[in-house]
Specification:
Chains: A alpha/beta (about 325), B mainly alpha (about 500), C mainly alpha (about 150)
Order of helices and strands of chain C: HHHHH
Largest sheet of chain B: 2 strands, antiparallel
Oligomer: heterotrimer
Low-confidence stretches of chain B: none
Strand content of chain B: under 5%
Structural class of chain B: mainly alpha
Largest interface: B-C, 64 and 69 residues
Low-confidence stretches of chain C: none
Largest sheet of chain C: none
Radius of gyration of chain C: 24 Å
Mean pLDDT of chain C: 87
């Protein structure tokens, strides 16, 4: 084990040169994988574990390129300029494929026509959580408080226009209540101020709060996925609390440039699904608080259509725009 | 388990052959990253991140942490020898480190920054070991009102960080705040001064700004003025490394103060080593009997900030380990390394994973000792860089700045920003506008705006929130006292000069 | 007027104009809000106004001081180094690491007349090797050494 680890370390440090192309026609040399965010975030993490497993199983070579900026729009825009041979792929997700197209005044691509959907990878629900000292014991109490004092119950989110913020906007509309929205530059600070009791509750993705739920410094009141989450079996979903049909999740998916040949899409989809079957990869993703997805390219294409339409409504209803 | 039992367990874990090896890999890479201007620790740690999936979590964390605090040791090297900061946290070391090198005391400066780094690191570790849970709880009670008052105190304390015209210093602070505010507004999503350029929507990177106004500007000025041999070869011997008794006497208090300031800022999520180094420098200059020595090679001007940024590196593990709250993206990545292995960071970590927690803490000692062993002999090699003719050196330094900046986000935009800020830096130097206040305004301005707006939102528009909350009120009182004291001493100095 | 500190007068006036432009742009393009509920335009407007004031102070101070000599800018190093960075930024995503370093070094070497072409060639070889060893091998970064992407 130790020896193996050392070897891998040595390999990763020394052998980053492009591998020789495999026997098949695809791929021709290494595949460039665009991560439209800076290194170190959730999308970067998912991309690295996925491509590492695919490289191991298929003998392919991936070159990760972090191309962050403008809420993930810049990296995806770069994909639209790539050749249509599947040598350049990217990790799209809820914000840059479903939310930003409506949120941003100018966006350099059409999320529905400029990309070829390949496979859904994973998703994570949003969690509504309060500090352990909070007087709110359940979700109903929080909603009731907001109904009695409109705009007084404070909610921290990772920022204006994030999935967490918009999900709560949709919820507020549906429940006909109003929270006091306190946006933060990122999930870490939003969560910290909720633990410290400076805001009444936090709405953030499950991975960003999971360790605090486990350690008991935060209490989860509800999750936004349709069903309960395996990591939080005790926490009800918003939908089951009487808000029928309510669902919000932050998903990640592999996409290629438009008009990718069908056989390449099939090869890639099979490779992603094979990687997602791997036990170790599944635990890695689940430990983080995400749900492993997978499925066919067609299923993802339909899902993308639906999500695009749903979030467009949410953004319009919230009145948020980025000029 | 008792405290000493824990320390023993930690030492045992940290001293295993594998862990010492990974600790060495970490601090070696860290030193390398620190010496190279431009490239950041975050980029390097995320490259190595996938490797940690296959490692024992303790070893993985020991290695990543080694990279993190190792950069601060290496970061001052280029500041001192070339006037080009290795990382933004070392930019302030340029102010006195480079004059020391010009006076032929480059080796002394490198040696003293290593000593200061070790002292700062050690004090940081002691504080981390003894008080982590208490400090972590205290940090949680700091809300936006407290942060705003603290930043205001920092800004007031740090005015006068540079020499020359006070008006020019203020102009630079304002320009820094303006540049820091470019990008997407957290509250409304409005893109401020982005002019439709998507890259500007994420704001200007501190690395690009620091590399431009300090690094590139320095290269441009020096190529035009440095001719021929710059240093006597006797300056480069190992004997030249030995600090004088005066150096030591002047340094130990600033090192302790710097370590204290660094430990304080490190433990607060969201602040960090850069801010700590700037404040530590400013406080030394303010409290010095003869502030005019600063900027001309004062030893306190390098030892205080270097102790501060190293202490901050260590205490930034306090919120990370004791609460599971990452104070910076780099710390978030380290937490990620734990979570992948199914370990929950948070208050339970110390009791549930004592060998991991104490092993990591003890590895910091080993890492700091390794860094001293690694850095002291390296001084001899680094100072020889000065013997390399400048016309061969500057293209190399420029290449590292460009490539380092580019590698962070594969963004040519950031490289172009370095170019623009390089031109700005040359203009500033020619017109005697100081660069340090620009960086300070850039770091502090957006945080102050953010916390002020949030405090106002949370208090429903009551300004009283800043004085009703005890911590915030105390900080504001100190700020007011500082302003009063500076005004009085300035008036007294003026009266004395007119009466003469 | 010409025997006053003309440099401070001009930079001061330039800063005053710059500050006013920022303040006006911020107040006309972004919501100002109130101090209690600040909009995105409030801070930039304040900063612009203060900068304008400080610029005026600087110009005023300059008018009271006698003229000081200003060392001239050496244009050759300035243009060569800024040009070097520009060529690097243009070249690296299109032709890869090695050609980008080569062109950058060639352009920057114009900054110093002492550099001969042979020395520059040796320097390029050294820098390309150093970049490959440090960035690709030691740090495992994925910047292609040579590529063709237009």
């Amino acid at each position: 084990m130790k020896n193996n680890t050392l070897k891998k370390l040595a390999c990763a440090l020394l052998v980053t040169l492009p591998a020789v192309a495999s026997a098949q026609n695809y791929p021709q040399g290494s595949i460039e994988f665009i991560v439209p965010f800076s290194a170190g975030g959730g999308t970067d993490f998912a991309s690295r574990v996925l491509t590492e497993k695919m490289a191991e199983q298929q003998g392919w070579n991936f070159v990760i390129e972090n191309r962050g900026g403008a809420g993930g729009n810049i990296g995806l825009a770069q994909l639209t300029r790539a050749a249509k041979d599947g040598q350049v792929l990217a990790m799209g997700q809820t914000s840059n494929m479903a939310i930003n197209p409506t949120l941003y005044a100018n966006i350099p691509y059409d999320a529905l026509t400029d990309f070829t959907p390949i496979a859904l990878v994973s998703s994570q629900p949003m969690v509504v959580a309060v500090s352990k000292q909070s007087a709110y014991d359940d979700f109903a109490a929080l909603v009731e408080a907001a109904r009695e004092n409109p705009g007084k119950v404070s909610m921290s989110t990772p920022g204006a226009g994030t999935v967490s913020h918009l999900a709560m906007e949709v919820f507020s509309n549906q429940a006909d209540i109003e929270f006091m929205h306190i946006p933060y530059p990122g999930a870490a600070q939003a969560v910290t101020d909720a633990i410290g009791g400076h805001v009444d509750f936090v709405a953030a993705s499950l991975p960003s709060v999971l360790s605090h739920l486990r350690s008991g410094s935060l209490k989860a009141l509800a999750v936004t996925s349709r069903e309960r989450n395996d990591a939080l079996p005790e926490t009800p979903s918003v939908a089951e609390l009487g808000y029928e049909g309510f669902e919000a999740s932050d998903w990640k998916a592999v996409v290629g440039p438009a008009e990718l040949p069908e056989d390449i899409v099939a090869t890639l989809n099979a490779a992603v699904n094979e990687a997602l079957q791997d036990e170790r990869l599944r635990t890695t993703i689940e430990n983080e608080g995400s749900t492993v997805e997978g499925g066919t390219a067609e299923e993802f294409a339909d899902f993308l259509q639906a999500e695009h339409a749903r979030w467009a409504d949410a953004v319009t209803a919230s009145g948020a725009t980025v000029q | 388990m008792d405290f000493f039992g824990n320390l023993g367990l930690g030492l045992q874990t940290a001293l295993s052959l594998t862990n010492v090896f990974y600790c060495f890999v970490g601090v070696f890479l860290g030193t390398l990253l620190g010496v190279i201007p431009g490239i950041g620790v975050l980029a390097a740690i995320s490259m190595l991140f996938p490797i940690t999936f296959h490692m024992e979590p303790t070893s993985a964390l020991i290695m990543l942490a080694g990279i993190w605090y190792g950069t601060s040791y290496g970061g001052s090297t280029a500041s001192i020898l070339l006037n080009v900061p290795g990382t933004p946290a070392n930019a302030v070391v340029c102010l006195d480190g480079y004059p020391m090198a010009q006076q032929g005391r480059g080796a002394v400066a490198l040696f003293m920054t290593t000593v200061a780094s070790f002292v700062g690191g050690s004090i940081g570790i002691v504080i981390l070991t003894l008080f982590a849970p208490v400090i972590a709880q205290y940090a949680l009670s700091m809300g936006s009102a407290e942060y705003f008052s603290l930043m205001l105190l920092g800004l007031v304390a740090a005015t006068g960080i540079a020499d020359g015209s006070a008006v020019k210093g203020f102009v630079m602070v304002m320009l820094g705040i303006f540049l820091g505010g470019i990008g997407t507004d957290v509250y409304t999503g409005t893109q401020r001064f982005a002019f439709g350029i998507p890259e500007l929507g994420d704001g200007i990177s501190l690395v690009a700004l620091a590399m431009g106004v300090f690094g590139v500007a320095e290269l441009i000025i020096s190529v035009g003025s440095v001719k021929g041999k710059r240093f006597e070869s006797s300056d480069l011997t190992l004997r030249a490394m030995k600090p004088t008794r005066d150096d030591m006497k002047r340094s130990w208090r600033p090192m302790l103060r710097g370590s204290g300031i660094g430990s304080f800022f490190g433990a607060l999520p969201g602040t960090g080593p850069s801010l700590a180094a700037f404040i530590a420098y400013a406080i030394e200059k303010r409290t010095a009997r003869d502030p005019s020595r600063f900027g001309k090679g004062a030893i306190e001007g390098i030892t205080a900030p270097e102790s501060a940024n190293n202490a901050a590196d260590q205490t930034s593990f306090i919120p990370t380990l004791a609460l599971g709250i990452p104070g910076s993206p780099t710390m978030a990545l380290m937490l990620g390394a734990l979570i992948i292995h199914g370990i929950t960071p948070g208050p339970g970590l110390m009791t549930e994973q004592p060998s991991l927690f104490w092993g990591l803490v003890m590895s910091f000692w080993i890492g700091n000792v390794l860094l001293v062993i690694l850095n002291v002999p390296l001084i001899g090699i680094w100072v020889r860089l000065l013997a390399v003719p400048y016309h061969l050196l500057f293209p190399a330094v420029l290449m590292f700045i460009c490539l380092g900046t580019y590698s962070v986000n594969n963004s040519t935009f950031d490289v172009l920003l370095v170019m623009v800020f390089g031109a700005l830096g040359v203009g500033m130097r020619k017109l005697a506008f100081p660069a340090a206040p620009l960086i300070l305004g850039f770091v502090l301005g957006p945080m102050m705006e953010d916390h002020f707006r949030r405090a106002m939102l949370l208090s429903s528009g009551e300004f009283a929130t800043f004085v009703q909350r005890p911590i915030s009120a105390t900080l504001l009182a100190i700020t007011a006292a500082l302003v009063l004291w500076s005004t009085l001493s300035a008036l007294r100095a003026r009266r004395r000069s007119t009466s003469q | 007027m010409l025997n006053r500190d003309i440099v401070d007068i001009f930079t001061g006036l330039a800063l005053a104009v710059f500050g006013l432009v920022i303040a006006l742009y911020a107040s006309s393009h972004y919501q100002l809000g109130t101090l209690q509920r600040m909009g995105p335009g409030m801070v930039p407007m304040g900063i612009g106004a203060i900068t304008a004031l400080l610029g005026a102070l600087l110009a005023g101070g300059g008018a009271l001081r006698p003229r000081v000599a200003l060392s001239g800018i050496e244009w050759r190093p300035l243009l060569a180094i800024l040009g070097g960075i520009l060529t690097f930024a243009i070249a690296v995503p299109r032709v890869g690491l090695a050609p980008a370093i080569a062109t950058m070094t060639l352009v920057t070497s114009l900054a110093d007349r002492q550099l001969r072409l042979k020395t520059v060639a040796l320097l390029i070889v050294f820098l390309v090797l150093a970049a490959i060893v440090i960035f690709r091998l030691a740090l495992g970064m994925n910047i292609p050494i040579v590529r063709w992407a237009f």
